[in-house]
């Protein structure tokens, strides 16, 4: 079971690499999807079976435009969503 209050996305806003940190009690298969504010899927990766306890994955979001995104963590049983802001220097 994924411990939903132990999910974080940082840095937020990010400038190219987002760290997705999560903690769960048992090994689970994790699939991560990122959607833009229009609901279009812009990133998807199955990270496979990840061992229990604290974990971190780092998807490369350098191909994404500046803006608001939603990161979905999907397991066989549950789905959790966190927001992510991608912001590049020219848009600051």
Could you characterize the architecture of this molecule?
The chain is mostly beta strands and 92 residues long. The chain has one domain: Immunoglobulin-like, CATH 2.60.40. Helix content is 0%, strand content 53%. The protein has a four-stranded antiparallel β-sheet with strand order 4-3-6-7, with no helix packed on it. It has a three-stranded antiparallel β-sheet with strand order 1-2-5, with no helix packed on it. The mean pLDDT is 85.
Give the helices and strands, then pairings:
Blueprint: E1 8-10, E2 19-24, E3 28-36, E4 41-50, E5 53-57, E6 67-74, E7 79-86
Antiparallel strand pairs: 1-2, 2-5, 3-4, 3-6, 6-7
Overall pLDDT confidence: 85
Give the % helix.
Answer: under 10%
Biggest β-sheet: strands ordered side by side in the sheet? 4-3-6-7
The chain-level structural class is mainly beta
| Order of SSEs | EEEEEEE
Radius of gyration: 13 Å
| CATH domain fold name | Immunoglobulin-like
Count of individual helical segments: 0
Largest sheet, strands/sense/barrel = 4 strands, antiparallel
**Name given to the CATH architecture:** Sandwich
Low-confidence stretches: none
Q: What is the CATH first-level class name?
A: Mainly Beta
Query: How many E-type strands?
Result: 7
The N- and C-terminal alpha carbons lie at a distance of 38 Å
Beta content comes to: over 45%
**Shape category:** globular
- The domain tally reads 1
């Amino acid at each position: 079971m994924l411990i939903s209050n132990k999910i974080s996305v940082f840095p937020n806003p990010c400038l190219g690499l987002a760290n997705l940190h999560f903690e769960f009690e048992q090994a689970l298969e994790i699939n991560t999807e990122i959607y833009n504010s229009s609901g279009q899927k812009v990133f998807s990766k199955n990270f496979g079976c990840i061992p229990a306890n604290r974990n971190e994955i780092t998807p490369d979001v350098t191909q994404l435009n500046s803006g608001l995104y939603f990161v979905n963590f999907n397991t066989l049983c549950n789905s959790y969503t966190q927001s992510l802001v991608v912001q590049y220097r020219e848009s600051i």
